[in-house]
Write a structure and sequence with these properties.
Elements lengths: L1 E3 L3 H18 L5 E6 L6 E7 L13 H8 L3 H16 L2 H4 L9 H10 L8 E4 L2 E4 L2 E5 L8 E4 H7 L2 H22 L29 H8 L8 H12 L3 E3 L4 E5 L5 E4 L4 E4 L3 H17 L18 E3 L9 E3 L1
Antiparallel strand pairs: 1-9, 2-3, 4-7, 5-6, 8-11, 9-10, 12-13
């Protein structure tokens, strides 16, 4: 038998509110949520909505999809059924890639702080756009307005694109790629579950070919992809003092009499940040929730840090397609 790290209460709450969020936002490609113990990497909850009835896994759960398939026949219908089942069975948190958007600014900021390029009091000026040679101006999300003069801590709370593109230029392609790998975005997390998506260099920029414009767009979380499990593993590293932990769901293996055969201890893959950098980042991420785009995450009596993100789905035919996180 196995003893899991999953907390039944947290799992139930996670599923409930993820389902509400998917319904209220009208999400068209399912929602994913993960809850992790940042100190150990233990997964306390993991959910996908819309999902399917675990007691009837071969019933297509999406009524619209089922209705469309019912109109087909023969081999065409069989193929459509198989495709629909495979899609609903996929564990989105560990198997599907997405553009992270502004959530990734946490890692750009961590790199800048760790390398001594910025402090929370460094000033940036936002004119509403960011310009570089040979590229059309890239807009801040408040364009045609601008943030004007702001400290770096304020730039994070404002989620200011020009500020982070400027920081990307200060970091440069070499350092950016080094930290991108250090935070785990170029490899599997190693979670003890089947189906973690394989990571290939087609998903991110490699140092040999990264251009200044690629660094600028990557600094705000666009033009590359990650999985939710990679994202939360990296964020836990920023929050826990700088240690990249390996996520896991099995804590103990039991024998036939219920005795513990093996206790699986947390695994630290490497140290990425100094404790001082992590402390600075925690304080600035708290400001995002207090004063910036994360105000809905405030909980009376608790100190909460975070970062929201809305990214353009660059591989979609629908130019208005967005991913919210």
């Amino acid at each position: 038998s196995l003893v899991l790290t999953i907390d039944e209460t947290i799992q139930r709450i996670t599923e409930k509110y993820l389902e509400i969020a998917v319904r209220e936002t009208g999400a068209t490609n399912r929602g994913a949520a993960i809850v992790m113990d940042v100190q150990t990497g233990a997964i306390l909850a993991m959910a996908t909505k819309g999902d399917y009835d675990l007691n009837n896994p071969r019933v297509i759960a999406n009524p619209d999809t089922a209705a469309q398939i019912a109109l087909l026949s023969g081999d065409e219908q069989n193929a459509a059924v198989l495709e629909a089942l495979q899609k609903q069975w996929k564990n989105k948190p560990i198997s599907e890639f997405y553009e992270p958007g502004s959530v990734f600014k946490v890692f750009t900021a961590s790199t800048g702080v760790q390398e001594g390029l910025v402090t929370e009091n460094t000033h940036f000026f936002c004119r509403g756009t960011y310009t570089m040679p040979g590229v059309k101006p890239m807009k801040c999300h408040v364009y045609p307005r601008s943030h004007g003069d702001q400290t770096f801590a304020e730039a994070i709370a404002h989620s200011c694109n020009p500020a982070f593109m400027t920081l990307g230029g200060m970091i440069g392609g070499h350092l950016f790629c080094q930290y991108h790998a250090a935070f785990g975005f170029t490899e599997l997390t190693g979670i003890d579950m089947l189906g973690e998506a394989r990571v290939t260099p087609t998903l991110y920029h490699v140092e040999e070919s990264i251009r200044p414009v690629d660094v600028a767009t990557s600094a705000i979380g666009q033009t590359f992809k990650v999985t939710p499990i990679q994202m939360i593993t990296g964020l836990a590293c920023v929050a826990n003092g700088g240690r990249l932990m390996q996520p896991y769901v099995v804590s103990d293996i039991l024998g036939p009499e219920g005795e513990v055969i093996d206790h699986l201890a947390p695994v630290c893959r490497r140290r990425v940040l100094k404790e001082e950098t992590s402390r600075t980042m925690r304080e600035m991420m708290e400001a995002v929730v207090l004063y910036g785009g994360g105000r809905n995450a405030q909980i009376p009596g608790y100190r909460v840090g975070g970062k929201s993100g809305t990214s353009q789905k660059l591989d979609s035919a629908d130019e208005k397609a967005r991913i919210a996180s």
